[in-house]
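Task 17 of the worksheet. Students: predict the tertiary structure of the chain below and write it out as structure tokens. Keep your answer in the requested format; marks are given for formatting as well as content.
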Amino acid sequence: MRTFLILNIIEFNQIIINYKYFMKKSLLPIIFIGLSLFSCNAQQKQSTFENELDKWKKELYLNGEVGKPCREDNNWLKWQEENPEYYFGLGNIERIETDFNSDGIKDALFYFPAKNCVGGNGTASDFAMLIYSNEDNLLTNKNITKTIENEIKGSLAEKRIYGVYKIIINYKGLGKSLVGKYSAWSEDDPSCCPGSIGTFEYNPIDFSIETQNQTK
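Model answer:
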């Protein structure tokens, strides 16, 4: 009887060992496949971001909006000779990635300042492109800056600040909203100095905006 029990225990232990070995052999391929798919999806997303970024830079150039980067030696005349149709030069592009619409897919904001390369004092809003997910597709919004400028103008009108003819925005971040600073000029403001400055938070999902205005 004792020998029988010992044999049963040995057989039971062997079954446990075989089961663990089987589970280990079965799970490893599944884990490997899962990690591979995750890595492939991440690489594909990054590839899509880079492709859209390259297209955007080409469009800015071909549409006459942004020329080549400003010269490091600040030789404005030389830059004008090389870029006769342009005023602004391509700047260092900032990149922020986040899932602002909470669908499990990363979105991204790319932006850079409007830096003039001809020695003037003219400036403008940051150039920006928003890449976002919608039903497993990645879409782009290259008019996001103009949209926010118009929303700020409407928000200022609600605060009885009228006659706004120029708004400059600078991006500071992207969480659930696009955040940044703005300067606004009304008809009675001197060209050097905006009459209104403040901050904004723009929600790209419901297109709402909140502004904190500090009127000079």
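Marker's comment: Strands lie at 88-89, 94-98, 107-116, 124-134, 137-141, 164-174, 178-186, 196-203, 208-215. The longest strand covers residues 124-134.
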